[in-house]
Amino acid sequence: MRDVEPAKMKRVPFTGIRRVLEKANALEAQGRRIVHFEVGQPDFDTPDNIKEAAKTALDQGVTAYSSNYGDIKLRRAIARKLEAMNGLKVDPAKEVMVTCGGEEAVAAALFALLEAGDEVLIADPSYIPYSSLTKIAQAEPVYVPLDEKNGYCFDLDAAEKAVTDKTRLLILCTPGNPTATLREALEAEGIPYSNDKDPILSRRYAVVTHYPFKGGCEICVLQSNCPKGQGQMEATSVVLPGYEHPQQM
Which residues pair with 209 in a beta bridge? Predict the structure, then answer.
């Protein structure tokens, strides 16, 4: 039989987490009681107000195609949130894009920014799609090991040693997935520079993360050396089980 699978897809194996999930689901279908330790599924239902809003939208016929950038009302709401909570003033018509979940947002950024042969610094262990999406973009993941001795926090010195002339991006997730480790806000300023070249993130890809921190307060980390309008991304701080929650870019 002729092999029709592209070479780049041969580099992307089916994830171990999903293999375990398939086996667990099969056992549950047989009536076995399973405690799931594979996918990160919240143990609570989608809030009632979210479900009611979805039902209302369906009843009102809100089912047609939207803008490729996302519904403008949602983008305006995101812009208001960014200004109120993150101190970022953005144009919802030109500087906000809504995607169906974080993985699509990451894919859009990687596919737009990477060329074949580029290198991407990724923590090890980390969220598996960072590596697989990098490979699909025909770039090369370069893994920065996380050490138990420093609490599995991302090692900026190790990352700097991994930088080469081919380094294009650094993917830094906080809290870490799957380690759940946090980076202090000011440590974002220590992101490594590529010798005499541009900073890895500067004018390419900045990450704004908004997450609950110790004691219930919230910290916003902004890679501020990315000029306005050149690739800022924010991860959602809302978990909606059963829905692909929007991400904003």
Answer: 221
